[in-house]
Design goal:
The longest helix is centred in the first third of the chain and has 6 residues. By secondary structure, the chain is mainly β. The termini are close together. The radius of gyration is 13 Å and the shape is globular. InterPro entries: DUF192, Saro_0823-like_sf. It comes from Halorussus caseinilyticus.
Length: 115
Protein backbone atom coordinates (compact mmCIF):
# COMPACT_ATOMS: atom_id res chain seq x y z
CA UNK A 1 0.00 0.00 0.00
CA UNK A 2 0.97 3.61 -0.58
CA UNK A 3 -0.30 6.90 0.79
CA UNK A 4 -0.81 9.35 -2.08
CA UNK A 5 -1.26 13.13 -1.89
CA UNK A 6 -3.11 14.90 -4.72
CA UNK A 7 -3.36 18.64 -5.09
CA UNK A 8 -4.05 21.01 -8.00
CA UNK A 9 -0.33 21.12 -8.62
CA UNK A 10 0.76 17.49 -8.49
CA UNK A 11 0.40 13.91 -7.27
CA UNK A 12 3.06 12.40 -5.04
CA UNK A 13 3.60 9.51 -2.67
CA UNK A 14 3.77 10.46 1.01
CA UNK A 15 4.51 6.96 2.33
CA UNK A 16 5.20 3.49 0.99
CA UNK A 17 5.13 1.70 4.33
CA UNK A 18 1.47 2.09 5.39
CA UNK A 19 0.02 0.45 8.48
CA UNK A 20 -3.67 0.61 9.43
CA UNK A 21 -5.14 0.90 12.90
CA UNK A 22 -8.55 -0.74 12.65
CA UNK A 23 -9.08 -2.43 16.01
CA UNK A 24 -9.93 -0.65 19.25
CA UNK A 25 -6.56 -1.61 20.73
CA UNK A 26 -4.49 -0.52 17.72
CA UNK A 27 -6.34 2.82 17.62
CA UNK A 28 -5.81 3.38 21.34
CA UNK A 29 -2.10 2.52 21.15
CA UNK A 30 -1.27 4.37 17.93
CA UNK A 31 2.47 5.10 17.90
CA UNK A 32 2.94 5.11 21.66
CA UNK A 33 6.03 3.29 22.98
CA UNK A 34 7.79 3.17 19.61
CA UNK A 35 11.28 4.63 19.54
CA UNK A 36 11.10 5.72 15.91
CA UNK A 37 9.33 5.17 12.60
CA UNK A 38 10.78 5.01 9.06
CA UNK A 39 10.82 8.17 6.92
CA UNK A 40 8.35 6.64 4.42
CA UNK A 41 5.88 5.41 7.09
CA UNK A 42 2.22 6.28 7.73
CA UNK A 43 -0.26 5.01 10.31
CA UNK A 44 -3.85 5.30 9.05
CA UNK A 45 -6.77 5.23 11.48
CA UNK A 46 -10.08 4.31 9.82
CA UNK A 47 -13.38 5.13 11.49
CA UNK A 48 -17.01 4.28 10.65
CA UNK A 49 -18.14 7.90 10.39
CA UNK A 50 -17.27 11.52 10.95
CA UNK A 51 -16.74 12.53 14.58
CA UNK A 52 -14.26 14.55 16.62
CA UNK A 53 -10.95 12.67 16.60
CA UNK A 54 -8.19 13.65 18.98
CA UNK A 55 -4.49 12.85 18.97
CA UNK A 56 -2.15 13.04 21.94
CA UNK A 57 1.59 12.55 22.01
CA UNK A 58 1.97 10.93 25.43
CA UNK A 59 4.65 8.22 25.15
CA UNK A 60 5.49 9.28 21.58
CA UNK A 61 9.12 10.52 21.70
CA UNK A 62 9.33 12.01 18.18
CA UNK A 63 7.33 14.74 16.35
CA UNK A 64 4.54 13.83 13.94
CA UNK A 65 2.58 15.41 11.11
CA UNK A 66 -1.09 14.53 11.60
CA UNK A 67 -3.81 14.80 8.94
CA UNK A 68 -7.55 14.72 9.63
CA UNK A 69 -9.55 13.64 6.55
CA UNK A 70 -13.20 13.74 5.66
CA UNK A 71 -14.07 11.67 2.54
CA UNK A 72 -10.40 11.81 1.50
CA UNK A 73 -10.12 15.59 1.82
CA UNK A 74 -7.71 17.10 4.32
CA UNK A 75 -9.68 19.20 6.84
CA UNK A 76 -6.80 19.85 9.28
CA UNK A 77 -3.04 19.44 9.32
CA UNK A 78 -0.94 19.79 12.45
CA UNK A 79 2.66 19.13 13.50
CA UNK A 80 2.64 17.76 17.04
CA UNK A 81 5.61 17.88 19.37
CA UNK A 82 6.89 14.82 21.24
CA UNK A 83 5.27 13.98 24.58
CA UNK A 84 3.16 17.16 24.89
CA UNK A 85 1.35 17.68 21.57
CA UNK A 86 -2.43 17.42 21.41
CA UNK A 87 -4.99 18.36 18.75
CA UNK A 88 -8.46 17.41 17.51
CA UNK A 89 -10.79 17.87 14.56
CA UNK A 90 -13.78 16.19 12.94
CA UNK A 91 -12.77 13.38 10.59
CA UNK A 92 -13.54 9.87 9.35
CA UNK A 93 -9.85 9.08 8.83
CA UNK A 94 -6.71 10.16 10.66
CA UNK A 95 -3.13 9.81 9.41
CA UNK A 96 0.10 10.05 11.40
CA UNK A 97 3.38 10.62 9.53
CA UNK A 98 6.97 11.49 10.45
CA UNK A 99 7.38 15.25 10.95
CA UNK A 100 8.07 16.94 7.61
CA UNK A 101 6.34 14.31 5.49
CA UNK A 102 3.21 16.44 5.06
CA UNK A 103 4.92 19.79 4.43
CA UNK A 104 3.42 20.04 0.92
CA UNK A 105 -0.08 18.98 2.06
CA UNK A 106 -2.69 21.71 2.51
CA UNK A 107 -6.25 21.79 3.79
CA UNK A 108 -8.50 20.94 0.84
CA UNK A 109 -6.00 18.52 -0.77
CA UNK A 110 -6.85 14.85 -1.26
CA UNK A 111 -4.95 12.03 0.48
CA UNK A 112 -5.69 8.38 -0.31
CA UNK A 113 -4.41 4.91 0.46
CA UNK A 114 -3.84 2.97 -2.77
CA UNK A 115 -2.80 -0.63 -3.38
Amino acid sequence: MRLVHESDRERRTLATEVETADSFLSKARGLMFRRSIPDDYALVFRFDGVATRDVHMVFVPFPLDVLWLRDGEVVRKERLSPWTGIAKAEADRLIELPAGSADAVAVGDEVRVVA
